[in-house]
Specification:
With 360 residues, the chain is an alpha/beta fold. Helices cover 24% and strands 29% of the residues. The mean pLDDT is 92.
Amino acid sequence: MRISSKKHIIVGMSGGVDSSVAAYLLKKAGHHVEGVFMKNWEGDDRDNYCPAALDMADAESVAERLHIDLHMVNFANEYWERVFAHFLDEYRAGRTPNPDILCNKEIKFAAFLDYARQRGADFIATGHYARISQHKAETQLLKGLDDQKDQSYFLHALSSDQLSQSLFPVGDLPKPIVREIAKEQGFENHNKKDSTGICFIGERKFKTFLNDYLPAKPGKIETLEGEVIGTHDGLMFYTIGQRQGLQIGGRKDKAELPWYVAEKDLVRNVLIVVQGIDHPALLKQTLKASLHWINGAPPQGIALAAKTRYRQSDQACRIESLSGTSCLVQFNEPQRAVTPGQSVVFYQGDICLGGGIIDV
């Protein structure tokens, strides 16, 4: 989305190279730019897992070079109530949530947007690899031009209103160019490693972190036929399609194929596994999901594309039926490891139409 006149824009600056270059591009274009460093987790400055102090220092260094003000805003309470509580509820229910999607919806483009409005900003901006387009009266979310970095999947839950007040300055650029710009501007974070995983977990083992909040309930591992072949540490530690960490070796009476999680039986506290990466139990051609549409009403029966996980290529599908905010999705080809709690996100070419949480 192009802006012709000078605007007041507040950039969410994480200390990473993408948001740093976003701030630079907006300042270069002549806008009045401020930065905000969002503190979303209270423990992140007291341990080595989420070094917020180091990220803040990187953001401060960039802000100083750009001669813009940088504010630190604490959204930890909002994050706990709107994101982390849901994260725990989903794991209690045996599902695998994606907190980054909810964080974007509730914190970066809600709490932060409210803060920016109070400061009189015309727009907020972030370093996401996505684009925004104005089509007639609709504000559309588009894929980032760098298909290796496109982050529209994580932004599909935003509303048209949120998008209309947001900017993604690096969405038109490939990542190598972003790093090159940062280096040319003397940003010390120009070669900083991209953040991965969930910030509040950081480098900790997932089991160790989750055990601090939810009690583990060990149980049996069974085959589809009901044969007990091992024990699990707690259903919350496993996700559909998972291979690592099952601690099941090959068996003499069967081919030496690896085992994969196919199902979680919450009533019996049993983990059900199958052998082979393409076992039929790991494949689904339909799924049910809640549904959020960015603009208008979801189309039924027309050809669309969807992803059931980030990095997946677009998969041809149709929305076959709707009931309130729920839908039934029919894929042209079976999809592997469709996971309750994760998101299905719909596309029409480069346009991200919306998506929702997978139920089954």
